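Q: What does the assembled structure look like for these inputs?
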Amino acid sequence: MGTGYLDQIKQEAFEVNMGIVRERLVVLTWGNASAIDRSSGIFAIKPSGVSYSLLKWQDMVLVDLDGKVIDSKFKPSSDTLTHLEIYKGFNEIGGIVHTHSQWATIWAQASKSIPVLGTTHADHFNGEIPCLPYLNKAKVERAYEQETGLQIVKFFKDQKLNPMQMPSCLLSGHASFTWGSTSQKAFENAIALESCANMAYHSLKLNTKIEFPHHLIQKHYKRKHGANSYYGQ
Amino acid sequence: MGTGYLDQIKQEAFEVNMGIVRERLVVLTWGNASAIDRSSGIFAIKPSGVSYSLLKWQDMVLVDLDGKVIDSKFKPSSDTLTHLEIYKGFNEIGGIVHTHSQWATIWAQASKSIPVLGTTHADHFNGEIPCLPYLNKAKVERAYEQETGLQIVKFFKDQKLNPMQMPSCLLSGHASFTWGSTSQKAFENAIALESCANMAYHSLKLNTKIEFPHHLIQKHYKRKHGANSYYGQ
Amino acid sequence: MGTGYLDQIKQEAFEVNMGIVRERLVVLTWGNASAIDRSSGIFAIKPSGVSYSLLKWQDMVLVDLDGKVIDSKFKPSSDTLTHLEIYKGFNEIGGIVHTHSQWATIWAQASKSIPVLGTTHADHFNGEIPCLPYLNKAKVERAYEQETGLQIVKFFKDQKLNPMQMPSCLLSGHASFTWGSTSQKAFENAIALESCANMAYHSLKLNTKIEFPHHLIQKHYKRKHGANSYYGQ
Amino acid sequence: MGTGYLDQIKQEAFEVNMGIVRERLVVLTWGNASAIDRSSGIFAIKPSGVSYSLLKWQDMVLVDLDGKVIDSKFKPSSDTLTHLEIYKGFNEIGGIVHTHSQWATIWAQASKSIPVLGTTHADHFNGEIPCLPYLNKAKVERAYEQETGLQIVKFFKDQKLNPMQMPSCLLSGHASFTWGSTSQKAFENAIALESCANMAYHSLKLNTKIEFPHHLIQKHYKRKHGANSYYGQ
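A:
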């Protein structure tokens, strides 16, 4: 059996990889995106070391959840094992975006979570966007990229965070991951993250004691998500 | 009688909805614009859930001041009831723009009004741009979007603010609304708001004790507006 | 005798008026540029109230140094009298640019001069870029735009500033004027001003006690200007 | 023997000179790039005073390591002697980029080195990016551009910094130089510098006590550089 039935996730992953560059979430090659086909347990991810200007959707590398590359002349992104662990840990997600986008990375470098200060944030993220601690030396030396994914999944489980309601996290000293039910949703969440990170930074410089009311978080998150959602600007 | 005579406001509303995206006042779908025909009491507003890249002027949704949708296959923006209450409360305005533009939203999230620090501001806004308080829980639960509009109209009435001289406000924890005698003027005011919000933020970081003289506010506002205006750069 | 021999300054003024929009020094219509023909004492300036998208070089308005409009269907910019007084006061300049560009205006609103913190600044401006005081009420009421020009010329004379070595100033609560031996030089100085204003703001936030050595100011200014200049990156 | 075999470095230098403008690292003419052919000891650099819009690859000026211009109708950039001294001091580099890019220059004007706060930085620069002291008056008067190059080489030698692991420095009150094994790598490092300078500024405003762990610096630098590198997003 060929892999032709996986062309769709290759195309989806390609579109998002190009999108994060176009939206200036990626400088140089600092980012990558993937999309998964849950029925086969195979995801498509950016190849390693291919220039964006030459990239074709056919170049996306297929990888299964054991980390085996399927039918590709390219190596997958060096961050592949992080994507893999996130897919294994978060069963409902269909796509992942990793970027070093400026404002999200500014918070990650400061090792601080992004608080909810407004409805823009609450429309996408049901609470503060957590910043995970620095990965320790033993984990970095053992298997850096895999441990990064394992850390994310463990953190969400320990903190009882629902990855469908909090589709993003920051990694101290590193950058951001976002995800969603599809790779397109993951992309939109990456755009939302960058904008919210920017606005939160500056709002706190204007007013250090912002108290955004909980009922507005709930209202905005629920009008856009779940059974009774009705949002559409 | 058909709605053909309303094509003009559909075209106007379309132009402004595209304009706020082009001018980067809107990220993702965080914004919408409308234009009203005062003779019929019908306004045209962005449809809900249609991608900008596919949007046509014909898709604009017509809504009357009772909130009834006229002859459309689309639902109107989820913020329609806010627009409606503003049109009902402010009789002289012809268009409304709502955006989560970065700098205006930074002030809204900080729950702070934007002071007049220069002639750029005074050319468009005759005084500080007010930031309204957070909407309370009861109002959010009763009818969030309608209450948002009612709050704006009540605030301007209570504060004796003339909406034609102060064509904008911020909503704490949310974003901005601007308006004008036409939807084009509302659009220009939204651009002016974003620029003034940006500059006010940084000017205050350079000098916390700015005292912009009242006679310059008056001069600039009046050379551009009203019976004796003569401005035109 | 026709005004055909003045086509060149109309074209020059047009190019710079379009340039300041393209370089994003101008938001909406917040800016204008002019070029002067010194032999006839006539300058060309942006017409009032014509949209940039429709503007043609032929639309530039010719004005003489008595303020008389020559052969034009348009009114000149409402800031014309400011340009006129600057041309009368600074004999060697060939062009003037007025913009509310973001960073220059941020300093103007803060009512602060921009200090020399680096060679980028020193390449264009031989010292701190002065911010003039707020114009008083009597002058604003008498003849606002003319008094603005008179204030600039008087300030440079009182402070013994050479307008060819300091081709810019800020006006408290307002914005910036730049000039140069040609309108193209005035345009380049407006671009340099905006960049230096931006960088000075942020450098001072990193280090409040910057002491840029005087010998570097002199070296950079002189390698680019005057008899022994040799600069050219 | 002609210089045709040097066409490649002229083309490379041209591409990078255009690239730094396109990437907005250069405002006006504030920057230049060069590429060297090590076998002949000749480098190609931007000509002085030619507008970018007219620049052709054939216009790049060839200069040998004695500073002699080879077969050119143009003068080389006024910063040529700085490039020359860097090429003489750092034997392994193939290209140099000098820009007054905004964020790098902000740090240079503040006379502060850029600390390592994250993996983005550590991927390109193995430690803090040093800011060298102001050049003293005697050196400025003797031979400003040459002394600038000599200062950089001496600083790296004194501090035992490996220019291949730290391919950039700032000059107090001036701007930045970056380099690399090729001019393309120098270009990428200039882009990385600007982004890291931006993010470091803001991260430190969020958290003044960032302690980025040393093991992450090492991991990131080594997965991208040297014998065991495997990075490729």
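DSSP finds seven helices and eight strands in chain A.
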